[in-house]
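Quick one: co-fold with nicotinamide-adenine-dinucleotide.
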Amino acid sequence: MLLDGKKISDEVKAELAEDVRQLVANGHRPPHLAAILVGSDGASETYVASKVKSCEKIGYSSTLVRLSENVTEQELLKEIDAINNNAEIDGLIVQLPLPKHINEQRVTERVVPEKDVDGFNPINVGKLVLGLPTFVSATPMGIIELLKRYNIETSGKHCVVIGRSNIVGTPMANLLSRNSNPGNCTVTLCHSRTKNLEAFTKQADILIVALGKAEFVTANMVKEGAVVIDVGITRVEDSTNSRGYVLKGDVKFDEVESKCSYITPVPGGVGRMTIAALLQNTLLARKNRVTHIKYQNHVS
Ligand code: NAD
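Sure, here it is.
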């Protein structure tokens, strides 16, 4: 069965739009998200454009700050400071990756935790690890929402995550091992140095794939009846397509689909949920209540 990220993210966005209507009806301004885009990388342009468009659709304000590929780190940090100090803006994201001459760590640390709706600031990451209310990184948060809304049982299941990035794999492993629902999984975190990866993936009741290699996971690596979450998005050249490329996930969808109980498509799966989660975080920032109730209780 398909885990339909488009359908569920549309539901989430409709709920957020209603929240905004109420906020405005009570005399408050709507949430305001600012995005900084450095350079003109095709994929980053697309991601930022869809984030801004989603804001507009549900009644948020948005500001897109475009900076040249050659901007200095100091100039970028100055822009971040200006937004940090702007009381009219609730959330700030800096689209990654950044050009090589800019230190991404210094940049993510500069976004004040209260506006860090991507959940990349070390203070927010630390809170996540401790199970404290915070902004949860959008992709794992969107996956949790998807599992929740499809009522997928996670407690006691073996979850295998492929990829240990700070924005996807590591927080995902953390969230699913928590004493919460969804959560309470036994988690195995696999990465580029994992030996005999297939031996782990075949044991997975829930397999979350985030390594960035198109169609890497094949049917022989998946257990019958597993839940498969495909995070990967890779542009693969395709001259028959008008754009010259097609988007592929990390899972060979055609052969894995019939073997598993649930699977996310690419596109239309995790990517949609990521944007929905970012919008949820932005509303939280607006309401100035960083109490991520879903993850607040029963941490042990
Ligand atoms: P990354 O590129 O930062 O890290 C990749 C991870 O995969 C590393 O931890 C590495 O150890 C692991 N890895 C690499 N080769 C491996 C192998 N052969 N076996 C096992 N592990 C291996 O990853 P990222 O930023 O988390 O992105 C992963 C993918 O997810 C990319 O395709 C990216 O575009 C996509 N992504 C999608 C969304 C979304 O909203 N759908 C969000 C973020 C990232």
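If it helps, The chain has ten helices and ten strands.
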